Amino acid sequence: MFDYSSPINTLSGIGPKVLEKLTKLKIKKVSDLLLHLPFRYEDFSNIKNIADLVVGEKATITAKILNIGQKRVWRRNMTITEALLEDETAPIMSVWFNQPYLTNTLKKGLWVNISGKISLGKRGLYFSNPAFEVLGEEPYDEEIPTSQTLRGARLHTAGLIAIYPETAGLTSRYLRLKIKAVLDNLIKIPDFLPSYISKEFNLIAIRQALQQIHFPKNQAEINNAQKRLAFQDIFLLQIYSRNEKEKIKSKLASSIPTNLPLIKKFITSLPFQLTNSQKLASWQILKDIEKITPMNRILVGDVGSGKTVVAAIAALNTANQKQQVAFLAPTEILASQHFKTLTNLFKGWPFKIGLLTASHKLKSGLDKIDIAVGTHALIQKNVKFKNLALVVVDEQHRFGVDQRASLLKDPKHSAVPHLLSMSATPIPRTLALTIYGDLDLSLLKELPKGRKKIITKSVSPSNRDKAYQFIENQIKLGHQAFVICPLIEESEAAIMSEVKNATAEYEKLSKNIFPHLKIGLLHGRLKAQEKEQIMLDFKNKKTNILVSTSVVEVGVDIPNATVMMIEGADRFGLSQLHQFRGRVGRAEHQSYCFLFTESYTKNTAERLRILVESEDGFKLAEKDLEIRGPGQFFGREQSGLPDLAMASLKDTGLIEEVQQAVNLFFEKDKIENNPLLSARLSEFKESIHWE
Ligand code: ADP
Ligand code: MG
To answer: What's the total number of domains in the chain?
Structure first.
């Protein structure tokens, strides 16, 4: 016997080979199998005998493949796959266009379900590009099947068949059989959602949701089931954030009173006027650090929106109270960039600023430093502060209470430092609510006045040479250019081919196009130190052009670069393209962004047009969420969140409903009173890793 959390091989008929395949699909426990959700459904209703088929209708047959073959029509650059099928009543042809891999799956002698529209051709009736399901492939089908017995074994009642993420040798049909066996036998399915929540928000029970999502009778059942399952995951996510927030509220921090005259003096010393957003954000932060509960705030603003000076105002106020500030950046270059900026901003002020990176040690003891600038990793590892009161982190969104406390000399008895995290990735509000639910949000919505708009152009292949000529001219004027290579989907192999791609592009540019220029190459396979050196060479104008994969560092300032050329632009999200574009136009020079693509669909054109026309990062993020879904806002790393919940993060209505549910929960209930929820929460903390 098995239960919900048993290892998957406690199910009957799962030997080492199948186990290995299931593991590939991340199915390790019975629960993983139940939560291996279909990514689409096929309509196999209207089951007919071949002899009864009528032209124009949509129908499903169960038949044997008598013959299958493929031909190429070179003139039209097309492959055609043709199969002759037969059941007990008649034969029929089926034709597929441009699916050259079909013959790997569909083979002579196999039984299949074929579903699609019936057309009439010169040779009679035929299926054109039908959906199919292989029935007689798996070794566990011991009997010789007929269309009748196979139909009897079909696992659906009204025709919607779940199609799952598969792996070689493990078909959707197999998964369906196993899931059915589990649902038929499993007595208890734990439900961590409190019952009053399910009731209040009209959610179906967990067992029903699983039954319906795997074996739906109609679309409405699928919708209800998806809602229920997405709801519980987002509920968990929000409970987690709220819990973190409460935890932080229960800690003490040192209060930093706002010294207004001092801040005014600093602001007037700046060579520019603060934007309204900067003023508002600074004020929110100053009010936060006056409190005796630790600040937990994220400052989000486009590249170039001026986040550093906002953080500097908070640092100034803190250092002036003789309390320490830590300023953390993800890379060495960024750390030294921040160090320079802060040293400049605080010229003439009596603060000691120190830089602390792998290659740069502090000269004096940390005790003497007012503002320590360094890399995340280094400061976390080696350093204990005397009286750290404020931590500013660039491009790392979460920095937990424990992490903060660990920076203190005596983590047990001291106050927890205030946290200001900064991000250059504008994200839509609904997502921010959920992902940064534990953080208060400050937005820099406007760029400082007087910035030149970056001229963005979608370049057709026939104008490629002109674009190269343009780059050449910019370099003659003393400027520099980036060339970004196409993104390839996530996986180890993909990183390798990305590297190969970038290397090829680098070779092409340095040998054929710009043989007389100096070109640098940056990709994910280089060591951190090598990457830093390449970025430094570019910053110091030792190279004219930097060819890079999408790894090109966020936040690095290359004010001299004026051209951003992006290959395979259709493969990136709008937000990411916008981030790349933000790498240029960092100084007074007019800058340019050129988009190249090999996809000429209407969608691509439409998407790129949005980018050409808009320079509002938040607007682009909203669009992006609409078009591509939320996945891309979490970078290349998986978030640990199930796909369904992930996809539902763009459903504003659902997110707001869950928020009400969470409010209700904290009003009348406690996590400790719900052992199942509490257990899921601990698991969730382990699995989730977005930054
Ligand atoms: P980011 O938000 O990308 O970190 P930075 O803080 O690096 O942006 O600021 C980008 C540039 O804009 C810096 O050179 C900074 O001095 C300048 N800057 C910041 N605020 C203003 C402003 N209000 N007016 C003009 N320039 C500003
Ligand atoms: Mg910055």
So the answer is: 3
Ligand whose nearest atom lies closest to the CA of 557: 1
Distance 470 CA to ligand 2 centre (A): 29
Per-residue pLDDT of 91-112, as tens digits, reads 999 999 888 888 888 888 888 8
Among the candidates 564, 594, 614, a domain finishes at 614
Give the pLDDT band of residue 585 (cuts 50, 70, 90): confident
CA of 555, nearest ligand number: 2
Mutating to test ligand 1, I would choose from 272, 342, 346 the residue with most ligand atoms within 8 A of its C-beta, which is: 272
Question: Is ligand 1 within 6 A of the CB of residue 278?
Answer: yes
For residue 555, the ligand 1 atom closest to its alpha carbon is 3
The residue that leads in pLDDT, 678 or 399, is 678
Q: Is 448 in the pocket of ligand 1 (CB under 6 A)?
A: yes
Domain match, 393 and 462 both:
no
In this predicted structure, the answer to whether residue 273 has a pLDDT above a threshold of 50 is yes
Residue 503's alpha-carbon distances to 475, 523, 525, 544, 593, in angstroms, are 22, 9, 11, 17, 22
On whether both 407 and 483 belong to a single domain, the answer is no
629-673: per-residue pLDDT in tens? 776 666 544 456 677 777 787 788 898 899 999 999 999 999 999
CB-based burial label for 268 (10 Å; 0-12, 13-18, 19+): exposed
Quote the domain boundaries for residue 467: 455-614
pLDDT of residue 433: 74
Residue 528 CA to residue 519 CA, distance in Å, equals 19
CATH number, domain of 122, equals 2.40.50.140
Q: How buried is 32 (Cβ within 10 angstroms: 0-12 exposed, 13-18 middle, 19+ buried)?
A: middle
